[in-house]
Every structure is written in C-alpha cells, then in structure tokens.
Amino acid sequence: MADVNVFEVHVSLTSGKRKKIEISGDTTLNGLKALSQHAFNCGLLKIFSTAYIPIPYEEPLSQFNVSEFTAVVVPVTMAASFDSFAMYTYSNIVTWGKSVIPEQLDFQMREHKICKVATTDYAFAAVLGNGSVVSWGKHHFGADSSLVQHRLKKVKDISATRVSFCALLEDGTVVTWGHPEAGGIDESADSSAVQDSLQNVKTVYANGYAFAALLENGTVVPWGEIDSGGSLVSDHIKKYLKNVQTIAATNNAFAAIRIDGSVITWGDMEMGGDSSAVSHQLHSGVGVKEVVGAFGTFAAILQDGTVTQWGRVPNLFDGGPMFSQIKSKLKNVKQICATENAFAAVLENGTVVTWGDDLAGGDSSTVQHRLVNVQSISSSSLAFAALVGVGIHSCVVTWGCPPSADSSKVQDQLTNVLQVKGSVDSFVAFKANGTVVTWGGDDMQESSSVAEQLVPYLD
Known about the structure:
CATH topology of one domain: Methylamine Dehydrogenase, Chain H
Helix content: under 10%
CATH architecture of one domain: 7 Propeller
CATH class of one domain: Mainly Beta
Oligomer: single chain
Number of strands: 31
Structural class: mainly beta
Strand content: 35-45%
C-alpha cells in the first residue's frame, strides 16, 4: 500500500528540464531544494512555487496545495590568484587566502550585481553591474586602480596578465592599469602606443606579459612585452591574422584560431610562438577545434578528435610520457587541461591520457584505474584534479606534485561535487549543498572558516 505521507511534486529548471520528486509530508521548501540539487546534480540559487504562491522556506509543503515548482540554477563562478580564492554569484562573493576582499569593497559589491572577477598573480578586479570596477590585493599587481577609476565606467568585461588588468568598455575601447615594470619585464599595463587602434574591441585575451585585443572585424591588436607577443613583428603574421575567432595563450605566446579552423601563432618562439613544425596540421584543410596553453607549450584538438602539440617540450628535465609516446592514444578527445608542464586529455569514453613532466601531472599511472567516467579536469600549477562520476556518487581524483596533488585528508568529503578550481598549489571543490572543500597549500587547507559564508549562495 502506498505511503499516504509521501507525495509527488514536479520541479522545473528555467532551462526547461523537469523532474518528478517524491517528498514526505514534513518536507520543507529548503528540503525540496536539497532533493532537487541531487536530482539535477547542480546547485540551486532558489526554488519557488511556479504559481508564485508565497511559501516560507521552513514550513512543511503539505500545508500548501502546490505541486509545481521552479528552480533557478546558482551561477557560481570561482577565480584564483596565486595565494587566494574568490567564489561569487551575481549577488554574493566570498574570498579567502591572503588577498581577502576589504570590508568596504565587500559592501559595495553586494549592492550591485557581480558580473566577472579576473586575477593577476596577486590581485583581483571585479566588474559590477553598474559598469564600475573594484580591485584588491597587492598594489604592484594591479590592486590599485585609483589612477584610472574615473575612466572605469560602463565596463562590460575584464582580463589580466600576471601583473596588469585590462577593462573592456561598452563603447569598444579599453582601459589598462597595473605595474608597468613589475618583475622588470611587464609592459602590458601601458596600452598608449596602440590606443588609437583599440576601437571596436570585441574581446581581450592575455598571456603572462601581453594582451591581444580581438576587434569586431576579426583582426588583432596586441600590446605589452614584445618578446611575449606584445607586437606583430612579422609581416607574415600581420598578413594572415584576420578572420580570427578566438585566441589561446602560453605564458609568453599567443595562438589565434581563425574562422576557417587554421591557427596563427606569435610571441616567444620557444614558448609556442613558432608553430612551423606542425603547420601542416594547423591549416584550414585540417581544422582546429580548440587550443590549450601550458607554460610554454600549446596543444590543439583537431576536428577529427586527435591532438597536435608545439612549443617547449614539457618534460625536458624530468620524467613522464612524451607526446610522441602517447599520441596514438589521443583519439576522440573532448577536453584538454594543462598544468605548467603537462597535459591531461579527457576522451569521449570518459578515460584520461596524460603526458609531460611527471612532477607536474604528466604521469597518471598511479591513479589510472580510478580515471573512469571522468566528467572534467581542472589544474593547479603542478597537479590535476579530475571530477569522476555525477551526483552523490561523484568523487575527485588528484595526481601530480604535492601539496595540491594530495587530497587524501579530504577525500571522504569530495562527493556530490559540482565544480573544482585550482590555484598555484591548491584546489577548491564546490559542492551541491553550497559548501566548499579545499586542499593543498597552507593558505587554503581550512575550508571550515568559509563554509558558513558560502551557505547564502543557495538561499
């Protein structure tokens, strides 16, 4: 006989997905939200009656004649500098590590929609819904935007090199700031030499020490450290750098994918700027789907699902599989992720192939038996973290160089994970219940201090 205290409701996402969920008579709206998160395997910002009947979150749903609910997926985004993390939705932000957001900026950000957060090595900058920008962290790495604050109006996007920020305004122009000589080589904060050309900018990309602006007409305007691609020194590059669709980067070079699937590279010749050795695989007849950059090496997924590579050899000084040794295994590749000196490719069948410096995650042999049904891979500087499985049966598998490769102390907490984000030596996992689990460097090991702050993400 059916349990009269159990009844069914329907929950729909704004995307159109719909599920039937069984609840008990004492289930509250908060309880239904938790059940829905497991059912849809995603965090939910809020849940409400589709008929807009007011229902308190802690009242049993059996008191209301409601069977249809709508849930809004929480758009949680994470950003990481070298020593800090930021997790944010459109209305809330939580930071932890060494570059914690100052209280006065935190209040200002909660008043406005948070559109995007970008990071240099040691600073953050956030674009707010009113078109303004707030920044914090170490001054020499772009935290001090006071000299350009009067120009930071109607900002729609932001990008960053290792020490400088670039804001893209609604009118298609840009504003840059940061330390022009941080580390003795960065010039990316100074865009004055190309300011007249920076009109009708569509998107701005960055590597470690240079920016590249993609204009609406498909051409590219770079600036910054010349050896890192801050200038188009070759007439050949100038001639063919047209009809560009997107741009990828290593630390010192750029790779532009054109609409026809061909790739043009420039910057430091040894760090990916020279692709002549594989040019036969990067022309329009082959077609490139995606390019991913490590510190000095590019890997490209071709239209047929295979992979090619150029730039600095990742495992020049340490052990680990070389690209030539595993190339034949790279078929039906759907994602490539990179640490500084290694790559990990997720195949369509959910398995993983790795290559490069074994001290940077290039050798996954010790965890290969666990890399099954892999959904996605994230990276720190020297380690990988694979999200395996879905929902309550999901887990995270890590490998590479400690401390971020060692998740043993928190492994029992790494279930029902939605996202994983890496910084230099740490990872943070965001769970469906709105809490986080962190591991790695000393600044990130304790997640208990931020867990309570993250609960409002799902309120």
